[in-house]
User: What shape does this take?
Amino acid sequence: MARLARIVVPDVPHHVTQRGNRRMAIFSEASDYELYRDLLAERLAFYGVVCSAYCLMPNHVHLLLTPTRRDVADAGASLSRSVGEAHRRYTAFVNARARTTGHLFQGRFGCSAMDEAHWLAAVRYLAFNPVRAGLCERPEDWPWSSVRAHLNARDDGLVDVSKVLAVAPRFADLLAPSCVEAQPDEVFEPLAVSGRPLGDAAFVARIEAQIGRSLARGRPGPKPRDGKAQAG
Assistant: This one.
């Protein structure tokens, strides 16, 4: 099946996720997380992309990124280049240290545009990712996410806390058990990989108007006979 072209929209938050190569972890020590954060921050600033939340895990990363360039093509290029260049630079460092070659990340990164409601749910989802993985007891205990920056209302070099705090000024309330919605992996991550927007019908219609094409799912093709794939 043909892969859906990446859909990137100006001034809309996108959930970006990418996993590491199964042969190794992305981050092995604290300095790795710090270097990745610095490299990504520099590239995002260069291309005009704003990070509103993030969570760096040992074998994958979650980023909520908003391209600010007004043209659709420019927005797509800025998001792709900023993340791609940061990942290539970080991979070069890891390979040089290990005296090896090869890919550190699996394929291209997943990316899904989101409306405001799903974006806020994704902020909570990212915050609790290390808790669900058993790496810490509370979101604020994990040093490699934007949770502490949001709680302190202070940028950390990568995240721009103003984006979330403008909508949820009492950020701690988002982490309260009564506000945390169950958002399992099957809600966010496959959508980021598929590239389909996450939002209501009006949001999807607005994106279709901006990019100039329909996002309706095509009808499935005929099933191959005898359960065997047909040559194409």
